[in-house]
Design goal:
The complex is a heterodimer of chains A (133) and B (110). In chain A, β2 (62-70) and β3 (73-79) form a beta hairpin. Chain A has helices spanning 13-26, 33-54, 106-113, and strands spanning 4-9, 62-70, 73-79, 116-119, 125-131. Chain A has one domain: Histidine kinase-like ATPase, C-terminal domain (Heat Shock Protein 90, 2-Layer Sandwich). Chain A is globular, with a radius of gyration of 15 Å. With 133 residues, chain A is an alpha+beta fold. The mean pLDDT of chain A is 96. Chain B is α/β, with parallel strands linked by helices. Chain B has one domain (2-107): STAS domain (Transcription Regulator spoIIAA, 2-Layer Sandwich), CATH 3.30.750. Helix content of chain B is 38%, strand content 34%. Chain B contains four helices and five strands; from the N terminus they run ββαβαβαβα. A five-stranded mixed beta sheet of chain B has the order 1-2-3-4-5, sandwiched between helices. Chain B starts with a strand and ends with a helix. The chains are: A alpha+beta (133), B alpha/beta (110). The A-B interface holds A 12, 15, 33-34, 37, 40-41, 44-45, 48, 93-94, 96, 99-103, 105-106, 108-109, 112-113 and B 21-23, 52, 54-55, 58-60, 62-63, 65-66, 83, 87, 90-93, 95-96.
């Protein structure tokens, strides 16, 4: 797969579009239903965070989606134009006292379902890696 | 996404068809509004036709459970696919919800 670098507006329609594009480009690798489900979920969670929390759904702000294969590892980088956030401050949703909370599971799921997740210092870029073959 | 509500053996069975995500969550909440306002005591949600759940979908189910608990109602989830069940395991929501393998088991002794 050749490297793709795309920019789009902070429109929620791009959440599904982003995961669909990546999964379509992964078709040739036959990665299986489970990996497809996990990648779809993580991409959509990350793009939604970028649009809603990062860019505050401001149509003038853009999201950058970049993805490529490095040997058998899928790399996905998602950048927003917001102030950034500290992912370490997200409360652990699996703790007893947080189970009834209705937020805070997106980043947690990404960290669990991807093989590696990194953020830049500012906190407006997430880099996700997943072995797919 | 569609929600079908059927009275069955003295309780309420809801069948959700499609995805439970950020787009469908408002419609799902609306579909359950009447059941919650009527303080429906026991609801089984059949998820056999649910193909995808994201964190918003999980939050929607948590919110429904909280609303039901506020009047001592009970909810059971049935027929989850392994992919969706894995999300409940990862997030430990399996500790919060009564999750049953099939609708018949969910209805029995509820």
């Amino acid at each position: 797969m050749e490297k793709k670098d795309i920019k789009f507006d902070s429109n929620s329609g791009y959440i599904r579009e982003s995961s669909s594009r990546i999964l379509k480009d992964l078709e040739i690798y036959g990665i299986g239903e489970k990996a497809e489900f996990e990648i779809k979920l993580c991409v959509e969670e990350a793009v939604r965070n970028a649009i809603v929390h990062g860019n505050k759904s401001d149509p003038k702000r853009q999201v950058r989606l970049c993805y490529w294969m490095d040997k058998d590892v899928l790399n996905i980088e998602i950048e927003d134009e917001g102030a950034g956030f500290n992912h370490e401050l997200v409360k652990d949703p699996t703790k007893e006292e947080n189970l009834l909370r209705t937020s805070g599971r997106g980043v947690f799921l990404i960290k669990k379902l991807m093989d590696k997740v990194e953020f830049n210092t500012k906190g407006n870029i997430i880099i996700m890696k997943k072995r797919v073959k | 996404m569609a929600v079908r509500i059927d009275p069955k053996q003295g309780l309420t069975v809801c069948h959700i068809d499609g995805e439970i995500d950020i787009n469908s969550s408002p419609m799902i909440k609306k579909s359950f509004d009447k059941l919650i306002s009527q303080k429906t005591p026991k609801i089984v949600i059949n998820l056999s036709k649910v193909t995808y759940v994201d964190s918003s979908g999980l939050a929607t189910l948590v919110e429904l459970l909280k609303n039901m608990r506020s009047y001592n109602g009970r909810m059971r989830l049935a027929c989850m696919s392994p992919k969706i069940k894995s999300l409940f395991e990862i997030t430990k929501l399996e500790k919060l919800f009564e999750i049953l393998a099939d609708e018949e088991t969910a209805i029995t002794n509820f």
